[in-house]
């Protein structure tokens, strides 16, 4: 998979080649990334005298050699490359010129665990490591490349020697000498995460930044670069996804000679990291390639995530169907009320009851108490241990909501440790949801969080923990960490807590959450097998969030619940069956008060939970195909890897007078097999090529169809 010959590095995956070359001046050129090739792609580089392009001194009077044009694996400032740089280093004297020259390389087996960061886990991986050295400071860049199936994982570490440097920007970049590309990105807002958008890469950089200290609802840190004619089923596309949960920057631009540069990495304008006899590892970047459109790209990418990033759920709970009390009660409950909900949840077939916000200190609204993680015995009329015992006695597991990274000004913790909150010394803090963010770059804060979590997990006998994060970082000032280091060190502090919990409590299942999907990324997925997808539980709007998220994330990671109607976010009334079908495209749960359901609704939910459990492993371990995604209707197919079973879900949005039929081609089924659908045997070739008429009755708005398909 990794071939090194005459300074030419050829990395070959199942379906792609990635090629680099060290040139005669020791610069690492990026030659090619696309469908498999053999040979040396440096043949496509044209050396010509280009107007106003500068040449490095060592090229002498050869004006045909310029970094203004050459495709580079590492791009910096001050070398005559006038494109947007990936790496900016300021030297001891404050200048920002830097030049990295090839030193050495090695090839070895096995992926490296990067200390303090999530990293891909591949037993039989082959890894290429290339070391470059910076001319002035002698700082080193260690690049790593791991190949597996259709994916490449890039890593980058910067190691400073005696000379002090400041790392101001650290993005992976990709140069393409020619071609017309689009970027697909996933934008949104709270309650409307990861909406797919597409833009053409042109002159003038298209940039996306999260400077929120977290991935954000607004723009996800996964992108797809594709040929301008790529569609769901045709054309080349590659995904770029950071294993990172903090601020990040992406850019894409076309340059004067028609070449394209794309950059992605952690950090925003707040980032500046001083190094001296020390190092910093960037989060890994997962890059998956497909020549067969977005559908194939998502499947290849998501299989990789399930096998090499998402940790196996060691919890005794197997795809637990959970009931979360947030939309059932908000802050208004007693221990007895919770018990009655949990009992009813058990009767409906749930495996787990999750107690959400409002159980601790004086937390009866969102104005206070974050940081004071002891149960409110007056409100519950019992302690946590008793509540947990009473609930688990009913035969249902117990889980608890926490928001460990936050502090309310109105709390004992803030009174005792105001210096633990991120806020400027001489300025009042910026508030978000009335709360401040704790300084996770401070080891004392991390130790405090670990200790109260130990206490809650033990006393509450927790099987599950929902980890929420309900505001972003604004005040980049810490009492212990230099301001420019906070973006990075904060996330390392967070990961160290997850690492601690994963190791100490392997059977505890943690669900990620940030006001829904504000921190939905591969960094979190490494530690938490599922994340609450969005605070928007409306079935129709959620379809869009699920479809958008499915491009770069496996649906097994989507926390997905059936909620009450009228929906609390949109006030829309949708049929229970539709809500359940939409929730099945993820990890299923309920977000309602079961004690308020009619007998008919209870029976329907019981049935739906049984159905979900039948399909759970197909949904979780199978491949997800987006079949139809329009303003009129959506449809998806979950197909087992051996293509013997599938589950089709379709939702028609509004009902129309004299409606138009909807058809889907069942991509993902085997054309050589025959399938049983609704008692009829239908050849796979017909389902894949002629397609299926979706049997909507068009008698209602928001009508759903669910069909189980099995090989016969
Ligand atoms: C935001 C989460 O996304 C909700 O599910 C709920 O846990 C609230 N926070 C509680 O404050």
Describe the structure.
By secondary structure, the chain is α+β, with helices and mostly antiparallel strands. Helices cover 20% and strands 31% of the residues. The protein contains 13 helices and 39 strands. Strands 6, 7, 8, 9, 12, 13, 15, 16, 20 and 21 form a 10-stranded antiparallel β-sheet that branches. A hairpin with a 2-residue loop joins β1 and β2 (8-12). The longest helix has 23 residues, at 599-621. The mean pLDDT is 97. The protein binds (2R,3S,4R,5S)-2-(hydroxymethyl)piperidine-3,4,5-triol (DGJ). (2R,3S,4R,5S)-2-(hydroxymethyl)piperidine-3,4,5-triol binds at residues 326, 356-357, 401, 468, 470, 513, 515-516, 532, 535.
Compose a concise summary of this entry.
With 712 residues, the protein is of the alpha+beta class. It is built from 13 helices and 39 strands. The longest helix is centred in the C-terminal third of the chain and has 23 residues, at 599-621.
